[in-house]
Amino acid sequence: MTEPTAGTAPESTAEHPADHPRVAAVKEELRRAGAAPASIAGLILLPDAVTTAAAAAAALGVEVGQIANSLVFDADGEPLLVLTSGRHRVDTDRVAALVGAGRVGRADKDVVLAATGQVIGGVAPVGHPAPLRTLVDVALDDYDRVWAAGGVARSVFPTTFAELIAVTGGTAAQVAADRAGG
């Protein structure tokens, strides 16, 4: 399928998320971290907010597994960012074992905002007030290109598994109970 290119998604004339401080912070952090120019220039705005992997995949014309969901968890009181393939759910017991936490659960919206400076549905892998401990789902390595949120719910950018690890300082990990998906 044809994938969108920079500037192809229509923007609302009432708002310009491309100029939003959260999107600018994501672009700046990608630059600083040495992301490929195509990832930075490829940050696009979709016509509508996409707050699920299925919606993002449909809007982009890609497989749901190519969507890198940015999920914030509470790991014994500390925020933990898990970048997971949209094709499956995170196994919180597995993640707890991986990070040595007694308990891992989804963070509430206030914790997500405080930790990332971004709201649920638009959380990017980077551009946060401070670096977050990050796990990157090995299932994302099954794809040559994946798409991650760009700081607001309408923004996405193309990247790779290796680039996600590099720009986040994250650790590759199997975060789903069943690597085959689900």
TrEMBL record:
One Gene Ontology molecular-function label: aminoacyl-tRNA deacylase activity
Segments forming a coiled coil: none
Disordered: region residues: 1-21
InterPro entries: YbaK/aa-tRNA-synt-asso_dom_sf, YbaK/aa-tRNA-synth-assoc-dom
Gene3D superfamilies, per the entry: YbaK/aminoacyl-tRNA synthetase-associated domain
UniProt domain YbaK/aminoacyl-tRNA synthetase-associated: residue ranges: 49-165
Protein name per Swiss-Prot or TrEMBL: Cys-tRNA(Pro) deacylase, prolyl-tRNA editing enzyme YbaK/EbsC
Source species: Pseudonocardia ammonioxydans
